[in-house]
Amino acid sequence: MSTLSTATADLTRSFSRNKLSWVGGILFVTLCLLAIFAPIIAPYGPIDQSIMNRKLPPSMEHLFGTDTFGRDMFSRALYGARISLTVGVVSVFFGMTIGSVLGVLAGYYGRWVDALVMRSMDVLLSFPTLITGIVIVALLGPSLTNVIIAITFTLIPKFARIARAPTLAVKERAYIEACRAMGFSDLRIIVCHIIPNILTEVLVMASLWTANAIMIEAGFAFLGLGVRPPTPTWGGMIREGFEQIFQAPWMSIFPGLCILLAVLSLNLIGDGLRDALDPRLKQMKDME
């Protein structure tokens, strides 16, 4: 069996020990499938209005009820999942990629590179995440692309710090010194030996910060800085239902539950990845 196959089997076995992580994985995959197949599953169009069906409570015809414009909340929640999950996954991917590269370079080269990169990251971290994102979106304008850019920008310094710390430890190991003695280039050492050994910690945080990115996007939409209406987003749906919270509470409750399920599933996945990838936890579980 190859090394990759062995590692994959070991990861699957370790991940399986945490049953709740599988619940989170199944739940998140289900949400993704609902978002992907929203045009097929949704019984109505997400922006179709019906004045005669304004603010109807949940029923068999409208599972999540309708809003103030008579739009089907279930259909809008399905299409809103597309926006929220896309923002969460894409922004974390770019934030992880850019931030990890900066963190690895800072940790590997040290000296002035480390000082320049990490002091810049410290400046970015000194501002609250939500405030930084709001400023960026306000300057660029509310749109899906600008929301992704704003959240990516707030995640870069976090991933940089996460990647730098293990890089400092890994670069001092004997096999890295052996690579240098054999004449390996810095690029080869970083790509083939540094990054694979720090990737586990980065991936665990990526799963957790994806949940955070979804909540940040919902916050932007609630403040009117997200995707422009009438495009449905979970945060925008909560904002629209906020003024009707006593007359039609389902308008805010159901999109709020969607955010809750997405965040819960990602946190359960993060816990499972941590248990599977952290060697200290694996050793403790093997001793039990």
TrEMBL record:
Keyword Transmembrane helix attributed: yes
Superkingdom to which the source organism belongs: Bacteria
Listed PANTHER family: D,D-DIPEPTIDE TRANSPORT SYSTEM PERMEASE PROTEIN DDPC-RELATED (PTHR43386:SF1), OLIGOPEPTIDE TRANSPORT SYSTEM PERMEASE PROTEIN APPC (PTHR43386)
Name of the protein this chain belongs to: ABC transporter permease
Family annotation (Pfam families): BPD_transp_1, OppC_N
Organism: Falsihalocynthiibacter arcticus
Regions that span the bilayer: 20-45, 83-110, 130-156, 202-227, 247-270
UniProt cross-references to CDD domains, sorted A to Z: TM_PBP2 (cd06261)
Membrane topology term: Multi-pass membrane protein
Residue intervals of the ABC transmembrane type-1 domain: 81-270
Record InterPro entries: BP-dependent_transpt_permease, MetI-like, MetI-like_sf, OppC_N
Localisation: Cell membrane
Keywords: Cell membrane, Membrane, Peptide transport, Protein transport, Transmembrane, Transmembrane helix, Transport
Similarity annotation: Belongs to the binding-protein-dependent transport system permease family.
CC terms in the record's Gene Ontology section: plasma membrane
Principal subcellular localisation of the protein: membrane
Gene Ontology terms describing biological process: peptide transport; protein transport; transmembrane transport
